[in-house]
Design a protein that fits this description.
Two copies of one chain form a homodimer. The first copy, chain A, is built from 14 helices and ten strands. Chain A has helices at 5-12, 14-23, 25-35, 50-66, 75-79, 102-113, 128-131, 151-167, 174-188, 192-200, 216-230, 239-244, 266-278, 301-322; strands spanning 42-46, 70-72, 90-96, 117-122, 135-138, 206-211, 233-238, 255-259, 282-288, 294-296. In chain A, strand 1, helix 4 and strand 2 form a beta-alpha-beta unit. Chain A is globular and about 55 Å long. At the A-B interface, helix 4, strand 2, helix 5, helix 11 and strand 7 of A face helix 4, strand 2, helix 5, helix 11 and strand 7 of B.
Chain lengths: 339, 339
């Protein structure tokens, strides 16, 4: 099989997968409202790896929507340390593509035993995770065969946006949701910018991906995807953390990917990009508008993560090919996570 | 001034700083019990950078002690996105060495305006953060002049242990707390292992630091400290996350630091170290007992982070010197964080 066949095919399914989820927006909203405790003390997200990165967007959107603290659960507290907890009035959202990551299933089970209401966000509603929940949000992304997760990650991002929309006010409207599948298709139909940027990165051994606020999770996912397909050491850092210390290692020619979208975090990123360029860094921008190196369609900041992650997949795919690697099966990676 | 003079002097103060905090253990416990909401819905920790790493230990200990979810706050929600939140029945713990990081002060102020009870963990009780809180836990670490934070970080770790002890059951006893200053002094009196390991790492351009559970925050801090003083690209990763993907970039000679201590996470780390050695990685262990490359005194797992971080400081210091750098003033780093 030609290298990258699986990953390319799965990336191409994303507009459809997202469209099917968006069609279910009102049903998902009604379901999560039925399950969520009222009053709500807090929301806890249980995830790992790529799912952890979708959770970072979820964390922001859910706190904006519910107004209550959102915690990213520490699974080892429940799987290793036998923590005695009281999770009454807590909504626990557990994310696992396969629904079979034992750590995630065990953690959700323990939190529900401690009083939490549990939602499973999974691609397999009959999985152990689905069976361990009060409500299953089925991603409907179909089987994923390439090792780098693509359509399941964007489906998770959309799922979090829909759960937040069900629980309160969110910074995007229904028209933007409906337009999302076309926005993703627009990115996929335009691979040339990713090819061009990939050619500038073939000599990189390390890079930093930076963003802030609503795009921060997309920066983490971009770093993971590049690292998975190319073995380049890639760090995702919030712009605030990058300024605070790691900027010391950014010198002439150091590659940095910056994710930007109009919104409250935009000015901070624009300033950081200028600072990085002053230091001689090789900055690639992922942002709406024709001036960006990797241009994004014009979508609200809260949904920009989704199109940015698709751009990142394209870049990871093109860069792996440019390096003579097979994006479908990076060395040393297995698909199933048993922790 | 001889390179590293400041950092060495500040590291040497740690037994005293910790002893003074431990002496206040009961007073701190009484104070935090007076301030904490009852019943407690959740705890939110507000921090950034090095303080963020101490918060990871805090996150585990506080959830074990209170049984309720612990959230690491996303400051940008409050400083940039104007989130409308209801933080009644939430205990907010804000950490800033200087007490002057505007983002941390603004976030604590907004959370208290939204109903939270706020504790400031700071080295300057008269700072804006101290003045914006219901209770100030003064670290009493004295001024810090070297750029890499040392005594303020270990003071923060101890502060979280003491706050958790005040709020419920913790996995260490008072005898272990009382013995902690001597354990730190024992590490400081024995710099030879760090010198020896530093000589094996002078050729490294990147490395991974791994741990799990109660030692995970120490792994993040170890990576930051090494990166700050040497410009080596250092990633802190939980052992679960390392197995799940990044292990693909670990090949022959790749340097990995593994932090271990007897406890529920120990078996997982022992297995991972064996796997990494099979792959030909250059593994350095930081663990209790004479067999470790960087040996630690025998302290409970919940307090092992503190002695492990002191070992990491030693290594960062020795490695910077071995590379001809000044640990006191790494290139490109400023002391004050304005985000």
């Amino acid at each position: 099989m030609t290298p990258g066949t699986l990953m390319a095919a799965e990336m191409a399914e994303q507009p459809q997968v997202i469209a099917r989820l968006v069609e279910r927006a009102d049903a998902i909203a009604a379901a999560v409202r039925r399950v969520a405790p009222s009053p709500l003390a807090a929301t806890a997200i249980v995830a790992r790896g790529s799912s952890d990165h979708a959770s970072v967007l979820g964390r922001y959107l859910l706190e904006l929507a519910t107004g209550r603290p959102v915690s990213l659960a520490a699974p080892s507290l429940h799987t290793l340390y036998d923590a005695h907890v009281d999770y009454r009035d807590v909504l626990a959202l557990a994310v696992s593509q396969s629904g079979r990551t034992p750590e995630i299933v065990t953690t959700l089970t323990r939190l529900r035993d401690a009083g939490a209401r549990g939602v499973a966000i999974t691609n397999d509603p009959d999985s152990p995770l689905g069976l361990a929940s009060d409500l299953t949000l089925w991603l409907g992304a179909g089987d994923e065969h390439a090792v780098p997760a693509t359509k399941t990650v964007t489906a998770q991002l959309v799922a979090f946006a829909l759960l937040a929309r069900g629980l309160g006010d969110v910074p995007f409207d229904d028209a933007a949701l409906t337009a999302l599948p076309d926005a993703v298709a627009e990115v996929l139909a335009d691979p040339e910018p990713a090819r061009r940027v990939a050619r500038t990165l073939t000599g990189a051994t390390r890079l930093v991906v930076t963003a802030r606020g609503l795009l921060y999770g997309a920066a983490l996912e971009t770093a993971l995807k590049l690292q998975e397909t190319t073995s380049i050491v890639a760090d995702g850092l919030s712009s605030a953390d990058l300024r605070h210390g790691p900027i010391a290692v950014v010198d002439r020619g150091f590659p940095v990917l910056a994710l930007l979208a109009p919104g409250p975090a935009h000015a901070d990123l624009v300033e950081l990009v200028a600072l990085l360029r002053e230091r001689g860094a090789q900055v690639t921008t992922i942002a709406p508008g024709p001036d960006a190196d990797l241009p994004l369609p014009d979508v609200p900041e809260a949904l920009a993560s989704i199109v940015a992650v698709v751009r990142a997949q394209q870049l990871a795919y093109e860069l792996a090919l440019a390096l003579g690697r097979d994006p479908d099966a990076p060395e040393g990676l297995d698909k199933v996570t048993v922790t």
